[in-house]
Task: structure prediction
Amino acid sequence: MNYKINPWEIEKESMQIISELLGSKDWPSLKKAIIHRIVHTSGDPDYANWVEYHPQAFEAGLTALKSGCTIITDVEMVNSGVNKKTLTHLGVKSMCFLNHPKVYELAQKTGETRSMTAIKLAADQITGSIVAIGNAPTALFTLLDLCESKKIKPALIIGTPVGFVGAKESKERLIMEAPVPYITVRGTKGGSPIAAAVINALMYSLVERND
Result:
């Protein structure tokens, strides 16, 4: 059986197929890029119906990336999915506090999830950063609580936690209450690869890829 092995050819054909599946839509170019990247990552065209974003989300994300912001993620899987070569090109760093030595100890004492604890530990670095929550609804709830109580202000929140306990509710709260621009996926859909896909789509709009 013959099959494609060149990664660029595979991606190009995938994006062509996605364009055909989604049809002609009058979307802003960056919305199209983000949705296509999410569908490419997930293999699920239905995601196009669930992406929601703040009117200033794209501008806020691009401005932060151009300024060399920090990206803070809730889990290592989001961190691992972000294109490191493009990060380096932009002078941006990506961090996850989940495996910080203090997190397990603190979570044991409080009974809270490690993801909640990690976001709290990162609180003093959140203002001006892009925060990407791809897995844990508790991390997104905690981030919104911190924004309210401590008046911290990320440049952009990417909130795509997945699952059936708290995920939908955390994202609805993000849409209704977010003090800063956001990009999210409504309902139970989501996950770490989706959050990473959004970050990558934003970054790829700023650089000429050769990886």
Observations:
- The domain at 53-204 is CATH 3.40.50.10230 (Rossmann fold).
- The first strand starts at residue 51 and ends at 53.
